[in-house]
Amino acid sequence: MTRHTTYPTRRCSLDMASVLLVYGTSEGQTEKIAHHVAGVLVGRGHEVELVHGRHLPESLAPARYDAVVVGDSVHGGRHHAYVRRWVEANRDVLASRPSGFFQVSLSAASERSESVAASRALVDEFLEGADWSPDHVGDFGGALVYSQYGPVQRFVLKRIAGREGGDTDTARDYEYTDWGEVTAFAEAVAADLDDVRHT
Ligand SMILES: Cc1cc2nc3c(=O)[nH]c(=O)nc-3n(C[C@H](O)[C@H](O)[C@H](O)COP(=O)(O)O)c2cc1C
C-alpha cells in the first residue's frame, strides 16, 4: 500500500496551489479515492501531497499547504482513531484555509434511505466532534472486498450486504464508489484553489 505520494513529482509552476491530502483506510478503497481526488487536482494544475494518516512523517507541516483534504472510511460505525486525532490536533490549520472532508462507507451506497441518512449522520458527528466545518464534504460509497476478509468478517459483511441490498456472492469483490461524485467533490475543491491563486 502506498504511504506517501507527491503529485506531480516536480513543481512545474509558481502559480500552483499545494494541497495536503491525509487519509485513513483499512482495505484500500479510501486510498484509491484519495488518488482519484489527487489526480483531478493535479489535472487542474495543483500539487498534492498524499499521506496515509497512520504513517505521517514527523516533518509534515500542514500549515505549509494552501488547502487540506481529509478522507476516512467507516468500520463498525467508527472512523480511524489516527484520523480523528490528526484532525483534532490540526483544527486551527483546517479552519484557516480551504478544506474538504470525505467519508467512505457501505451505507452511503445502500438501497435503504435510512442507511444513507445514517452515513451522513456519521459525517456530521465526526465533524461536530472535531469542531471542523470543511468547505466541501463528500459521503461516498465504498467497496466490499471479500477477498481480503477473514472468515468471520466475510460472514458479517455478507449479512450486512444482504440487508443493505448489496452483493452477497463472496467469490468476488464489489465497488460501489460513484466516481462521478468523487470527481465533482475534487472539482469543487479545485475551484476554491483557483480563487486562492488569483486573490
Ligand atoms: C469489519 C468492517 C466493518 C465495517 N463497518 C461498516 C459500518 O459500520 N458502516 C458502513 O457503512 N460500512 C462499514 N464497512 C464497510 C467499509 O466502510 C467499506 O468497505 C469501505 O470501502 C472501507 O474503506 P477502506 O478500504 O478505505 O477502509 C465495514 C467494513 C468492514 C471490513
UniProtKB/TrEMBL annotation:
Limits of the Flavodoxin-like domain: 19-184
Family matches, as Gene3D superfamilies: 3.40.50.360
InterPro entries: Flavodoxin/NO_synth, Flavodoxin_CS, Flavodoxin_dom, Flavoprotein-like_sf, Protoporphyrinogen_IX_DH
Protein name: Flavodoxin domain-containing protein
Classification lineage: Archaea, Methanobacteriati, Methanobacteriota, Stenosarchaea group, Halobacteria
